[in-house]
Design goal:
5-stranded antiparallel beta sheet, 12% helix, globular, single chain
Amino acid sequence: MRTSLRTALTGALVAATVFVGTTSAQATPPGPGVSARLIARSTVGDTDYVLREITIPAGQATGWHYHDGPLYGVVKQGTLSHFDSACASDGVYPRGSAIQEPAGPKNVHIGRNLGDTPVVLEVLYVLPHGAPFSEDAPNPGCPFQ
């Protein structure tokens, strides 16, 4: 299963790179200490394909959020700890791991870097045209941010 997800992700990343369009980034406020770098962007029909590199410093998090479209990523450095809105860990992703996040407000989550080195992700966003990278959400009652 992991191999097929990784193969699909690689294909999607290659497709996004081939379809590079404009390079302007949409601004969505990042969580504390998180930075992003645009790699490629293309719009096909009413769908935006955006490839970004996300860096989460040690001890920091993305903040609670969800996406209006699915997200596919690869951990390039560090280990990402991922939590759902029930405050439960729904994945720990070390370097080389593929991650997929479903779309919609029922999929509120947070990515945390519990390690001592930065987490670097390469992420493909598949979004409705004009949608932000993420939608901020309140903490669902978890003892962490």
